[in-house]
Predict the structure of hydroxymethylglutaryl-CoA lyase.
Amino acid sequence: MGFPRQVRLVEMSPRDGLQNEPGPVIATAIKTGLIDRLADCGLRHIESASFVSPKWVPQMGDAAEVMAGINRQAGVRYSVLTPNLRGFEGAQAAGVDEVAVFAAASESFSQKNINCSIAESLERFLPVMEAAGKHRIPVRGYVSTVMGCPYEGDIDPQQVATVAKALYDMGCHEISLGDTIGVGTPLKAKRMLEAVAAHVPMANLAAHFHDTYGQALANLYAVLEEGVAVIDASVAGLGGCPYAKGASGNVATEDVLYLLNGLGIETGVDLDQLVATGHWICGQLNRHNGSKVGQALGGNC
Ligand SMILES: CC(C)(COP(=O)([O-])OP(=O)([O-])OC[C@H]1O[C@@H](n2cnc3c(N)ncnc32)[C@H](O)[C@@H]1OP(=O)([O-])[O-])[C@@H](O)C(=O)NCCC(=O)NCCSC(=O)C[C@@](C)(O)CC(=O)[O-]
């Protein structure tokens, strides 16, 4: 198929990046400061918060305040996670541009993450889809554990395809394929993508790869070659997974951007500003910067 000419980067750091951050709850002003800086870098799709139970994810407990505190820029899509109708109602009241429902390709991961089976989760999303349709709010769908599960090991690509198709058929405009614990390798990524693309158009698929085993950029290169043109990433590689010991965050946005720049693929994002933003947030959190490009271009925190 060949590389796309343009890629939409979907910035994950305010949500996937911060949701598992250990220690005290991060101040709302740091979260809004991060989101505003990311928009200034040229990012046009920022997953900004989660309207989930604060008992499950305390770091996302101030989602409404975050949405109220950002300086919204025209042309930027500020999206959030919504696991159920209650989450959708909070998100809608906060004026989000897009919501996302999230399912898994593994039964065990579904139980640990959202306390229900895959089938129950899909049923739970139906009222979200209906309400979102009424309010004309687009819905993104995630499938987690697409290349491996911390409890079940290998995941059959057909199982990923089944869940992705179910989300697409219920009206999700884009399906993001999550290698939640970063165990994939390029051939596996291609096989998984081929299985999904037999049921969901390539133009409606996104890659969401974590970098635990250092394979995320190689996996992205593999799926870019197949025509994927939407990539989820997190500045400074922020993030982790509470259900997988040692799992790293999303692939660093700086590293993805450097790769895309080298391939001549347009994103509209400024690398120097992004590197500065990665160092800024690491300074705020007193955290190591997980971006190789960030380290090379700007020293380390
Ligand atoms: C789904 C539930 C709520 C089920 O949680 P539950 O305990 O089964 O459901 P519940 O309905 O009994 O609710 C429990 C409590 O939460 C409240 N509640 C219920 N819903 C909400 C809501 N929307 N907002 C705020 N509060 C809520 C509800 O009112 C109740 O409060 P209580 O009566 O005990 O005081 C819970 O399991 C949950 O919030 N899970 C979120 C987990 C999460 O955010 N995980 C991280 C997402 S990352 C991911 O999935 C992977 C991804 C997307 O990044 C891609 C990848 O990397 O692969």
